[in-house]
Structure formats: C-alpha cells, structure tokens
Specification:
By secondary structure, the protein is an alpha/beta fold. It is built from twelve helices and ten strands.
C-alpha cells in the first residue's frame, strides 16, 4: 500500500502550474477538473489535462499524479469517464468528489476497465463530504481498495451540517472516518487547511489529525507541503523505537518479544513495521 503524506491540488485549467506543483515536494498532486474549473472551461481543461498526461505521465515517477474528476451524477462527470477510459496515458488515480455509495464507485471501476484491459489500472480516491457519504464510508473505502483511499471533504461537509470548519464541529466526522475508512488497508487524508498564511494553525491541525489515525493532509498551496510532510513523517524517536522492536523480533526468533523488559504483542510489532514502511526503510 502506498500512502501519501501530502497531496497538492492544482487547477486543471492552469497547465502552467502543473510543473510547479510537481516541484513542490508533495507525495502526490491532484489536477482538479471539478471545483477549480468553471463550467464554461471544463471541456478545454479536460482536453488539456489529457494532452499533458499523454506527454508527461511517465516523467515523474517520484510523485503520483491524479485527477479530480467531476461528480458522477453530472454530465461533465460522464464526459470525464469517457475521456479517461479512452486515453492511452492514464493518471495514477482518479479522485471522485461527493462520493455517496460504494456501488457508484464499483460502476465507475467497471466503466474504466471496459476498454484497454492491458493498460494501467487507475486507483480510485473518494471524497467523503456529505452526511450520506459519511454513513456509507466503509463501503466507499472498500470499493477504493488498498491502492486508493478516502479524502475528507470538510468544507462541503461543514456546509451540509450547518457549521463552520472549527475542530469541534468536524471532530465526529473525522473520528468516524478514522475507523470506518479503515475497513480495508487504504489511505486516509484530511481536508486542506484553508488559511495558507497560518503555518502554526496548519501544523497544529496536522498533529491532531495524525493522532486520530490519518495518513496525511491535502494542500491548496505549495507553501503548505513542507509542514504537512514533516508532521506526517515518522519522527526520529518513532523510527528508533520501531527499529529496536524489529530487531528484538528477529533476535528472539518468533518467540514472545521482550524489549526493555516489556512484552510486545503482534499489533505492536506490526505498528513498528508500518512506521518503517512509511519511512521507506527496509526491514
């Protein structure tokens, strides 16, 4: 499973910003054809994004490239499905806004796979941003599978329930996703922090959502990427602990693992493996 610490959104109508986004240091970028593109520009943006992917999709192996398509219940969303099922260069993932039911994602997967079976399969990311979507979060996450994930769409969700985006108002939704979206071993990312000048606020929110179990946080400006990457990377203390746990497991040859006089059970050992995996350390 590939988890992202950071995902940087870039408008699909601004191809001049694609290279800048890729150079920002994010684990992934998501070219946005939905909210960032006005209705009259969607056709041109779609064509431009596909042309850019066909020319550049294989040139950036270190950064995953995704596209947020239009809603599955819109005409532009249907046009997106046709376009991305026919292009020879697919993105690494498609992000589906306003995901409500797992069956909708199953239908999308079927349509994408009808043509060109030998081509790269596109991972699916779902944006859960409604009360209905939160209710079906486990089914949605299950359809995204271990290669995809769920993004919490906090802005639309707060509008749906009639609140602001403060921590207390969105705590229930985040906590629910932290459990329901883990029905399968996919990724879970948090909503972007909208005040791009408030670095302290961004850092504090990252620390909080990491403590809930989120893998990363989406960004709306390149300046946010470094802080997000830092917080969601394992600390030196975490890495040192994980290495010691793994070494203890190896030296004790599958017997009950003892470290500093403490018995470590299987979940603790697996947590150590996950920390090292996130850091790209072989064990």
């Amino acid at each position: 499973m590939k988890t992202f610490r950071s995902l940087l959104f870039v408008p699909g109508s601004r191809p001049d910003r694609f290279e800048k986004a890729l150079a920002a240091g994010a684990d992934s970028i998501c070219i946005d054809l939905e909210d960032a593109v006005p209705p009259q520009d969607k056709a041109a943006a779609r064509a431009g994004v596909i042309a850019w992917l066909e020319a550049n999709a294989e040139a950036y192996p270190a950064c995953a490239i995704g596209v947020r398509m239009n809603g599955l219940d819109t005409l532009d969303g249907l046009k997106d499905i046709i376009a991305f099922s026919e292009t020879t260069a697919r993105p690494d993932f498609l992000m589906v806004p306003k995901a409500a039911l797992g069956s909708d994602l199953a239908n999308l997967r079927h349509l994408l796979d009808l043509r060109g079976q030998a081509r790269k399969q596109v991972a699916l990311w779902a944006v859960v941003e409604s009360v209905v979507g939160l209710k079906h979060a486990a089914d949605i996450a299950g359809m995204c599978g271990s290669t995809g994930g769920v993004l919490f769409g906090g802005a639309d969700y707060s509008l749906a329930i009639g609140t602001g985006m403060d921590w207390e108002a969105l705590f229930h939704a985040r906590s629910t996703l932290a459990t329901e979206a883990r029905v399968i071993n996919g990724s879970l990312m948090d909503v972007p922090y909208l005040n791009v000048k408030d670095e302290a606020g961004l850092r504090a929110e990252c620390v909080r959502v990491k403590a809930l179990g989120f893998d990363g946080k989406a960004c709306i400006h390149p300046s946010q990427v470094a802080i997000v990457n830092e917080v969601f990377s394992p600390s030196e203390a975490e890495l040192d602990w994980a290495k010691r746990v793994i070494e203890a497991g190896k030296s004790q040859d599958s017997r009950a693992i003892l470290l500093d006089g403490k018995l470590l059970d299987i979940p603790v050992y697996l947590r150590a493996e996950r920390i090292l995996s996130k850091a790209g350390i072989e064990f």
